Amino acid sequence: MLLPTRTVEKVWGRDVLPAPFTAPEGKRIGEIWFEPPEAMPELLVKYLFSSEKLSVQCHPSDEQTLAKGIGKQGKEECWLVIDAEPGATLGIGFKQPVDAESMRAAAKDGSIEDMMVWHQVSAGDFFYIPANTVHAIGPGCAIIEIQQNSDITYRLYDYGRPRELHLEEGMEVADGSPYDMGLSNFVGHGSDINLVDGPFFRLDQLAGESDPSISARYRGPLLVIPREGEVMVEGELVRPGQCALAQEIDAVTFAPGGTCLIAQPIRD
Fold first, then answer.
1. From the candidates 155, 227, 239, 267, which is the catalytic residue?
2. What is the pLDDT of residues 243-266, one digit of tens each?
3. 202 an active-site residue?
4. Kind and range of the H or E element at 89?
5. Rounded to 5 degrees, what angle do the CA atoms 54, 95, 201 make?
6. Whole-angstrom Cα distance, residue 173 to residue 146?
7. Global model pTM greater than 0.70
8. CA–CA dist 56, 163 (Å, integer)
């Protein structure tokens, strides 16, 4: 089943998108969402397209949202860069540990941006972003994002744009630590690679046909996200730029010369 898409305008979006996407005339598109199916409400898949910096922000964990009495609405996410202009960067974590008082002051005067580590990126770079991690996306990036299906974002700093900030809420959860580079990887087009294996979801890239050792971990419904080449899901053609729900991995026919991401939630 192909998932319906939602096109989302953003101040930092683009009016020209990479193929196969197109932006409506006069619109700056920052995100293309695939609506989570009823069988898998836990995961949200997006494409992100940036022409300007996104806000410096962070997300709470499930434990933190449960403690606030608003249910499980934590957000851990991961980014796979699929295209990057020269000099494009992602801001993740801090150069050195930052205490809460210093972070609050830096968010207020804008110097928080200079305290962060800005990683120069190219296509194939991958980062897992745990809840509480302070992060931002720079201009010139096209990214596939897989995340817990939550819309709670706390903006700490937004470059003077007239949008709501959430400094106090953000400071309750923001982690002032440097980013653990062990959570990053490089994803070549021709490789089978496990990118995420918990705690909330698993994510793999398959090059060509399914590897039996990978397939054995994917029992039950999964999301199929072609990167190169077409995929057949239960008799339906799925192309790059689309996302489909498959009831079983055995119902998916992968392109021998293609690459495809597969993902599913890890349930208790």
1. 155
2. 999 999 999 999 999 999 999 999
3. no
4. strand 89-94
5. 60
6. 21
7. yes
8. 12
